[in-house]
Amino acid sequence: MAESTSLARPYARAAFEAARDSGQFDDWSQSLNLLAAITSDGRMASVLRHPGLSAQEKIQLIRDVFENPLPEPVENFIQIMAENRRLPLFPSVAAIFAAYRHEHERIVDVTLTTAFELTDEHKQRLTQALEKRLDRTVELSVQTDQSIIGGVVISAGDEVIDASLRGRLNRLSNAMGA
């Protein structure tokens, strides 16, 4: 995984810069996400690894999957990836591209885990509070996990705030055992 990330990073950076310079983040994001889905499909991945197929044949296979023609810059990008035998890297390229885009647009993905379902009003208030605290636009996803008993666990990037009752009980137990 680390090797594919290292190999994918320069391609993701190039795609990000092309999207930024042209102002076509949505087109690039959609195309890269579709390419990631296509190339991670088990059967397609197997065909794309076949040494008997030329880069052009592999590109044509990918084109055949799309209903509409891809934007020319994306077509050129696929060409470069195919010529360098990097088509299997599209899932990593798409993920890294999304991270670059979120950083550029000052967006953070936040996962909130609660013991009970939240109302839309609570989600909205929490999103506003997190946006103020993180100084970024928050894309909130909410999960329910009754095993945390009560409270919340907030994950934003590398930062995790465990304000759950289960977390507090675990910390108390560790403190008493020390």
Outline the structure in words.
- It is elongated, with a radius of gyration of 21 Å.
- The mean pLDDT is 89.
- The protein folds into 2 domains: 2-103, N-terminal domain of the delta subunit of the F1F0-ATP synthase (Peroxidase, domain 1); 106-177, Glutaredoxin (3-Layer(aba) Sandwich).
- Helix 1 (2-22) packs antiparallel against helix 2 and helix 4 packs across helix 5 (72-83).
- The chain has a 4-stranded mixed β-sheet with strand order 2-1-3-4.
- The longest helix has 21 residues, at 2-22.
- It has 8 helices and 4 strands, in the order H-H-H-H-H-H-E-H-E-E-E-H.
- With 178 residues, it is α+β, with helices and mostly antiparallel strands.
- Helices cover 62% and strands 16% of the residues.
Offer a quick outline of the entry.
By secondary structure, this protein is α+β, with helices and mostly antiparallel strands. It contains eight helices and four strands; from the N terminus they run ααααααβαβββα.
The H/E string reads HHHHHHEHEEEH
The CATH C-level class name of the largest domain: Mainly Alpha
By CATH, the superfamily of the largest domain comes out as: N-terminal domain of the delta subunit of the F1F0-ATP synthase
Instruction: Give the proportion of residues in helices.
Output: 55-70%
CATH architecture of the largest domain: Orthogonal Bundle
Radius of gyration: 21 Å
Beta content comes to 15-25%
**How would you sum up the major sheet?**
4 strands, mixed
Q: SS-based structural class?
A: alpha+beta
Describe the strand arrangement of the main beta sheet, using strand numbers: 2-1-3-4
Number of helices: 8
Mean pLDDT: 89
Number of domains: 2
Q: What is the overall silhouette? A: elongated
